[in-house]
Amino acid sequence: MTETAGQQARTTDGDDPRLGEIGLDNFAPYLMNRIMGRYNAALRDEMAELGLTTPQMRALAVLSVMDGLLIRDLAVYAVVEQSTLSRALDKLARDGKIRRESDPGDSRAVRIFLTEAGRDDYVRLWPHMARSYRNMFRGIETTERRVFVETLQKILRNVRVHDF
After folding, report:
1. In a domain, 153, yes or no
2. Which CATH number covers residue 82?
3. Which residues span the domain enclosing 85?
4. In a domain, 107, yes or no
5. What value does the mean pLDDT take over residues 39-49?
6. ∠ CA 50-60-101 to the nearest 5 degrees?
7. Residue 8: pLDDT band with limits 50, 70, 90
8. pLDDT band for position 107 (cuts 50, 70, 90)
9. What is the DSSP letter of 103?
10. Which residue in 43, 44, 60 sits closest to 123, CA to CA?
């Protein structure tokens, strides 16, 4: 029996359409990546002025809210591979932006804390981050934004592999 083009485009289980059928503009992971790419690009000049990379900026941002995280937890919250984060933290430590401390409960574990210099850099960067965030939601009603964020939180719970 000959398959039609529509049948060829279906996956082997016959239920899920292929990406070509969905289209990139309707594929949420693609859209989320594009949004974050543009958000990060909007901050590139400000980060460069402070000598920061995207992983460094993410680490400072997370630590501004949850200081003293273990490196493995910081990697999860900053959405950075642990090896990439380690290099970013090395540079931040050399520049006096963070300090490392042994965890009192586990001498093998290390906690990361912002220094005043790191907090100052974050405070200088925040207005640019806030402006980019505002621009992202320009023309979107507060209720729509709230529902969108709640939906993202549900999606995160669905895909979460960590306990937090």
Report:
1. no
2. 1.10.10.10
3. 23-125
4. yes
5. 93
6. 120
7. very low
8. confident
9. E
10. 60
pTM: 0.82
CA angle at 74 for the pair 72 and 75, rounded to the nearest 5°: 65
β-bridge mates for residue 103, sequence order: 106
Long-range residue pairs from 108-114, CB within 8 A, at least 24 positions apart, any chain? 109/70, 109/71, 110/70, 110/71, 111/68, 111/69, 111/70, 112/59, 112/63, 112/68, 112/69, 112/70, 112/71, 112/74, 113/63, 113/67, 113/68, 114/60, 114/63, 114/64, 114/67
With respect to residue 152, please indicate whether it lies within any of the assigned structural domains.
no
64 pLDDT more than 50: yes
Q: For 17, which DSSP code?
A: B
- Here the tokens at position 79 are 């959405």
Segment 25-45 mean pLDDT: 94
Q: Per the structure block, which two tokens stand in for 3?
A: 């398959």
Residue scoring higher pLDDT (9 or 72): 72
Residue at 13 is within a domain: no
Q: How many domains does the chain have?
A: 1
Q: How far apart are CA 55 and CA 52, in angstroms?
A: 8
